[in-house]
Amino acid sequence: EIPVTLLQHMDWRNSLYGYIGIEDNTLYPLLRPGSFVQIDSHQNKVQPDGWRDEFERPIYFVELRDTYVCSWCEVNGSQLVLLPSAQSGKKARHVRYPGDADVLGRVTAVTMCIAEMRGV
To answer: What is the distance between the alpha carbons of residues 96 and 6, in angstroms, rounded to a whole number?
Structure first.
């Protein structure tokens, strides 16, 4: 569920928005499944360095041919490496780039639940 007040403040003309699937633990616990993200489509080139830790590292929203993924990324030659968080239990994925992946932009904001609602 997305709060109505959040929808009223969205910049539909200048931003893209994405949804982290309910089964997607790629960046858990930094981005939880079911999160809603704002994407800056002007920042669609993977930044190779310039951050100090995982909180500063850019997160990208990537379109694969059959799905979307929200991940840290590295470009390695003709490969885009999708990097999960250590806590996710997932392995890095390597995809042909740009052949099998398009970086839609950098995630600039997130709305997510941090606890389950009970009794609703």
So the answer is: 36
Query: Residue 100 carries which DSSP code?
Result: S
Q: Which alpha helices (DSSP H) does 33-83 contain, by range?
A: none
pLDDT in tens, 49-96: 999 999 999 999 999 999 999 999 999 999 999 999 999 999 999 999
Burial of 10: CB neighbours in 10 Å, binned 0-12, 13-18, 19+: middle
Cβ neighbours around 42 below 10 Å, total = 10
Torsion of CA 33, 24, 67, 49, to 10 degrees: 90
Calpha distance 68→102 (Å, rounded): 10
